[in-house]
C-alpha cells in the first residue's frame, strides 16, 4: 500500500520504458516552453550543410567517442553494483529520454520530417551495439542479480558490444549521416 511509484515498476522492463517516455515528454515540454530559437544550434540549415560537406578525421572521432562511451560504460558498471542502482538507472533513463525528447522536438520544429529522419540516422547503426552493452547491465540490476562472477562476464560481453558500437559510431555513422544530409540539403 505504501509502495513508491518506482518500487512498483523497478522489477519490470516496462517500468524503465515509462521513465524513458516521461523523459521524452519532459524534453518536449522544455522545448515548447522556450520563447526563442536559442536551442536550434546543430539543427540549423547552415550547420547541417557544413556537416554534410565536412571531411571527418575518423581517428580523432574514434578517440573522442571511445573515451566518452567508455566513461559512460564505466559509470554504468560502477552504479550497477550499488544498492541504489535501480533508482540511479531510472534517473539516467529519464535523462536519456529527456535528451531525446529535446532533440526530436527541436529537429521537428526546425526541419519537420527531415529533422526526425536526421535524428534517426544519428543513432544508426551503433544503437544495435549500445543497447545490448548497456541494456544487459540494466537488466542485471533490474532483476536483482547478485552473482559477481556472472556480472563480470556480462560486463565483458557488453564491453565487446561497446567496442563495436564505438567503431560504428565513429566510422560508419558519419558516412550514413552525411549521405542523408546531402540528399536532404
Q: What's the SSE blueprint?
A:
Elements: H1 5-9, H2 13-33, H3 45-52, H4 58-80, H5 85-111, H6 113-122, H7 127-142, H8 148-184
Please provide a written account of the structure.
The structure is a single chain. The protein is mostly helical and 185 residues long. Helix content is 79%, strand content 0%. The chain has helices spanning 5-9, 13-33, 45-52, 58-80, 85-111, 113-122, 127-142, 148-184. The longest helix has 37 residues, at 148-184.
Largest sheet: none
Number of strands: 0
Helix content: over 70%
What is the overall silhouette? globular
Radius of gyration equals: 18 Å
Q: Gap between N and C termini, in Å? A: 56 Å
Number of self-contained structural domains: 1
Supply the helix-strand structural class: mainly alpha
- Count, helices: 8
User: What are the secondary-structure elements, in order, as H or E?
Assistant: HHHHHHHH
Kindly estimate the percentage of residues that lie in beta strands according to DSSP.
under 5%
Low-confidence runs of at least 5 consecutive residues? none
**Average residue-wise pLDDT:** 87
Properties at a glance:
single chain, mainly alpha, globular
